[in-house]
Amino acid sequence: MNDAIERVRVKNQILSVIKMHGSQTAVDLAVKLQVSPMAIRQHMQTLQDEQLVTYSEQKQAVGRPVKFWQLTEKANALFPNHHADLVVKLIEGVRKVFGEAGLKVLIGERTQAQIQTYSAQMQHAQNWRERVAILTQLRTQEGYMAEIIEESPGVLLLAENHCSICAAAQSCSQLCSSELQVFETLLGSDVNVERVEHILSGDRRCAYRISSCN
After folding, report:
1. What is the edge-to-edge ordering of all strands in the sheet holding 155-160?
2. What is the DSSP secondary-structure string of 1-38?
3. Would the pLDDT of 134 be above 80?
4. Measured between alpha carbons, how far is 114 from 178 in angstroms, rounded to an integer?
5. pLDDT tens profile 1-25
6. 73 pLDDT higher than 80
7. Does this model's pTM top 0.90?
8. Helix (H, G, I), strand (E, B), or coil: what is residue 214?
9. What are the tens digits of pLDDT across the range 157-209?
10. Which segments of 43-152 are extended strands (E)?
11. pLDDT value, residue 60
12. E strand or H helix at 85, and its extent?
């Protein structure tokens, strides 16, 4: 029984690491999870049999090609997508009854509500870096698997490794536009915010480059 629990634990960790960091080799995963490469390869075979992972091969100067593992759509579906079917149907209903203008008003209301909710959590932040840190924490709590990456002095990358409203965003692209508006408003005029990766454009994650204007 304990072995079965351990296998499930490692399996979930593998899926989470790939989700957070993108394609991984068995050696990469072994180092991150402190598990032997042989054990990782056994897990990857099981996950492949379950259609949760797939791989691409990269040729090396010497030796056999290296497998880089990534998640399948089936695996991505295991991560939270907040009431996807219901939200999509609601969007379709609003569009049908009130038209695009009505949908735009609804998205605007949601945007303002987000700004108010996040602002209340940021009121004691001393600078833009603290605001980014709080925003990252709030987005992670909402299922976006967010993290901060320092690209260079004065430049942070806010990366969201999962979109918890992806199905809704596919149905209504205005939701993505409103997210950028929320970030720009919250983080203030002393920074520039630019979306540099976008899941709906085929990227693995959504990422926002935040740079100081000073």
Report:
1. 146-152, 155-160, 206-212, 191-197
2. -HHHHHHHHHHHHHHHHHHHH-SB-HHHHHHHHT--HH
3. yes
4. 10
5. 477 778 888 899 999 999 988 889 9
6. yes
7. no
8. coil
9. 999 999 888 878 888 888 888 999 999 999 998 999 999 999 989 899 999 99
10. 53-58, 66-71, 146-152
11. 80
12. helix 84-122
* Centroid of chain to Cα 87: 19
Q: In degrees to the nearest 10, what's the CA dihedral of 91, 96, 97, 101?
A: 70
> Do the Cβ atoms of 82 and 143 come closer than 8 Å?
yes
Q: From the CB of residue 96, how many other CB atoms can be counted at a distance below 10 Å?
A: 10
Tokens 């038209």, located at residue? 99
Angle at 109 between CA 144 and CA 113, to 5 degrees: 55
3-state secondary structure of 40: helix
pLDDT cut 90: percent of the chain above it:
55
* Rounded distance between C-alpha atoms, residue 214 and residue 211, angstroms: 9
- Comparing 92 with 158, the larger pLDDT belongs to 158
Question: Where is 209: in which H helix or E strand?
Answer: strand 206-212
Looking at the chain, the whole-number percentage of residues with pLDDT higher than 70 is: 97
Element (H, E) at 83: none
Hey, is 195 helix, strand or coil? strand
Tokens of 43: 């897990």
In this structure, are residues 200 and 169 in contact, taking their beta carbons and an 8 Å threshold? Answer: yes
